[in-house]
Design a protein that fits this description.
Blueprint (H helix, E strand, L loop, with lengths): L11 E3 H8 L3 H10 L7 E3 L2 E5 H10 L4
Antiparallel strand pairs: 1-3, 2-3
Length: 66
């Protein structure tokens, strides 16, 4: 039986999970990472790219329009 992992602010999410959280496609995050189009920090773990939940939340807050 697989238990569900509840993310915390320090949780590392895969690119797929981060894209789902933001409502984007995985490829969009890959393009942003290579072009530096948006300042969305990521963590390299070997060949893998991970995103901290706190960074995703901060990114959303920075992009709120009035």
């Amino acid at each position: 039986m697989q238990s569900e992992i509840i993310p915390t602010n320090t949780s590392l999410l895969t690119r797929k999970q981060a894209a789902e959280y933001l409502g984007l496609k995985e490829n969009t995050l890959a393009v942003w990472a290579t072009t530096k189009r948006h300042s969305l920090p990521y963590v390299k773990v070997g060949r893998l790219v991970k995103y901290r939940l706190a960074d995703l939340q901060a990114f959303l807050e920075r992009n709120v329009q009035q």
